[in-house]
Amino acid sequence: MSYTKGQELIYNPNGKVQTLNLQGIKKVKIECWGGRGGYGCLGTSNFWGGYGDCCIGELNLTNEEQLQIYPGNMGDSLIDAGYIVNQQHLYQGRPGESSYVNLDSMRIITSRGGYGGDYSTKHYSPDKNFINDILSNSSITSNSSISGKIIITIEEVNNNKYLIKQDNKYYSIKDNTLTELGIPIDDVQKEQWFNDYGIDDLKEALLTYDENGEKLIDSLDDKFEVRMMVPKD
Question: What φ, ψ does residue 19 adopt, rounded to 5°?
């Protein structure tokens, strides 16, 4: 999948860890909001849970990493506290779930969930806010106004384009298919080939198995070259 600079990817709670493969991406901004706390009540009085904290940071990428993303759910509400206050039954809210992001299984950011609503005590999640040192321009905001959400903003993409050259002829491996383009008549046509037929993920294209169980790299002899074009700014 290709991404564009400034694109926002929004992840909402679904009770599962969600993944994002980062091929072709050089830098992302991560905004991580903890889940809101559940609410409680005493008679007709409601005690609303607090919003979770927000941690933000920017991540530079060098390889084809993967993010594991978990947006925290809202805490359970109206949990029977098991005792009476002022002759009324007390119900409590549980803390919101913490939200977190891992980079290839390494924790890089955690945002604590909001406190659960109660008659006299705020029940906080035992988790603490955390931002790994590999993130830059980081910040933490307590009691934010958004609940249980993670936003990944694409800040820089890798616009390199690759073709294969063999025996002076150029080949495309776009869509995991080896296609002969031939010998370009001039630099203008060569640049057009890179733009139209080049791919930005060379490793995946060469090493992915096709329907016959073969890899594209096996279709090339030992004398092929990789040619790269970097678009002008």
Answer: -120, 150
- Name the 3-class secondary structure at 166: strand
* Whether residues 33 and 76 fall in one domain: yes
Residues with Cβ within 8 Å of 167's Cβ and at least 6 positions away in sequence, in order, are: 223
The domain boundary residue, chosen from 117, 140, 157: 157
Q: Residues 24, 201: contact at Cβ < 8 Å?
A: yes
Which tokens belong to 209? 């198995």
Mean predicted lDDT score pLDDT of the chain? 83
Please tell me whether residues 166 and 219 are part of one structural domain: yes
Element (H, E) at 192: helix 187-197
Domains identified in the chain, total number: 2
pLDDT band at residue 210 using 50, 70 and 90 as cut-offs: low
pLDDT digits (tens, 9 = 90+) for 104-122: 989 999 999 999 998 877 8
The structure's pTM equals: 0.69
